Amino acid sequence: KMIEFLNLTQLKTSLKETILLKETILLDYYAAGFWWARERNFSLIQISRFMELLNFALENLSSKHMTLGDNLKQLERAVTGLSETESKEGGDVNLFSIDQAKAVTDFLFASLFKHYKAFEYLFHGRREEPVISNE
């Protein structure tokens, strides 16, 4: 039903439509994360930080080509650094409660890290080169 609603029924293997599919997957991932955080009644600041974590993990994979293990280490550092930065700036050190932090971690594992190979293929899989001329 969602494929029909998004009008993705005519997908082919062309480069243009592959890019559209990639954008659709990323949009879905970010939208799912946003609504997940809203359903847990996160504050605007918590939602913002949560979305930053989603983006951080995806950027590590897409731009920096990080392995799963390296990305997990960087995410741990980012979360720790976030708390240190907030305490220096006089912000809330406990941005997320323990239960919320566990839920955030569970979301990241269930959505991104569980399907890491699929996301790696999305960003770095071989694509067919378009035929530009008959030569």
Task: Give the topology, please.
Elements (H helix, E strand, L loop, with lengths): L1 H4 L9 H25 L4 H19 L5 H21 L9 H14 L4 H9 L11
Helix pairs in contact: 2-3, 3-4
Strand content: under 5%
Radius of gyration: 18 Å
Oligomer: single chain
User: Can you count the beta strands?
Assistant: 0
Structural class: mainly alpha
Can you tell me the residue ranges where pLDDT is under 50 for at least 5 consecutive residues? 84-91
Mean pLDDT: 75
Major sheet attributes: none
Query: In which range does the helix fraction lie?
Result: 55-70%
- Termini separation comes to 42 Å
Alpha plus pi helix count = 6
Order of helices and strands: HHHHHH
| Count of separate structural domains | 1
General form = globular
Description:
68% of the residues lie in helices and 0% in strands. Mean pLDDT is 75; it is low at 84-91. The protein is mainly alpha-helical. It starts with a helix and ends in an 11-residue tail after the last helix. It has one domain (22-85, 94-124). The radius of gyration is 18 Å and the shape is globular. The longest helix is centred in the first third of the chain and has 25 residues, at 15-39.
Annotation keywords:
68% helix, CBCO1 protein, globular, 135 residues, CLAMP
Summed up:
This protein has 135 residues and is mainly α. The protein is built from six helices and no strands. Helix 2 (15-39) runs antiparallel to helix 3 (44-62) and helix 3 runs antiparallel to helix 4.
